[in-house]
Amino acid sequence: EDNTIRVALIGCGGRGTGAASNALTVDNGPIELVAMADVFDYKMKQSYESLVGQHKDKVKVPEDRKFIAFDGYKKAIDCLRPGDIAVMATPPAFRWVQFEYAISKGVNVFMEKPVTVDGPSSVKMLELAAKSVEKNLKVGVGLMCRHCDARRELYRRIKDGAIGEIQLLR
């Protein structure tokens, strides 16, 4: 039996590379990056080199699983098995199409923010989220502030009145 979690990175810019690196640091089971997709060759090369430098033993992406094309997300997701993970760090305009494809393949998804930037796309993403729940798929969104201890402490102090009345917050 192979319990290795397979990951595909879709969107190989800085945030995508960071999200893939974060995924590869989990220590509660075997995990491997097995496919990458982007529309820019130079971004994929930089991302691949960075990830191999940080996680050499967990990056298993041969040349035939590096996809440079607008439909590369499909090819990358097709390298996964149901229950594996697609990391999506692409512009929001493409996100719902990629999310829909991942759901159709039974793949769990981690996506970076922003997930959507307009009303119609938001409605579509909420509909897709309901479909992912029906299929018992897991979906996560990178919301950096949610897990930041310093921001939680600041929020607590504001709520407790420890720093007085807030006039402006940037």
Quick gist of this model?
With 170 residues, this protein is of the alpha/beta class. Helices cover 44% and strands 18% of the residues.
Structure write-up:
- The chain has 6 helices and 6 strands.
- The protein has a 6-stranded parallel beta sheet, sandwiched between helices.
- The chain is globular.
- Helix 1 (14-24) runs parallel beside helix 2 (41-55).
- The N and C termini lie far apart (51 Å).
- Helix content is 44%, strand content 18%.
- The mean pLDDT is 94.
- The chain has 170 residues and is an alpha/beta fold.
- Strand 1 (5-10), helix 1 (14-24) and strand 2 (31-38) form a beta-alpha-beta unit.
Reconstruct the topology from this structure.
Blueprint: E1 5-10, H1 14-24, E2 31-38, H2 41-55, E3 66-68, H3 72-78, E4 85-88, H4 92-104, E5 108-112, H5 119-134, E6 139-142, H6 149-160
Parallel strand pairs: 1-2, 1-4, 2-3, 4-5, 5-6
- Unreliable stretches: none
Strand content: 15-25%
SSE pattern:
EHEHEHEHEHEH
Structural class: alpha/beta
Ends distance: 51 Å
Q: What's the tally of helices?
A: 6
Q: What is Rg? A: 18 Å
- Outline type: globular
Total strand count, please? Answer: 6
In quaternary terms, these chains amount to single chain
Please give the order of strands in the largest beta sheet: 3-2-1-4-5-6
Helix content: 40-55%
**What is the makeup of the main sheet?**
6 strands, parallel
Mean pLDDT: 94
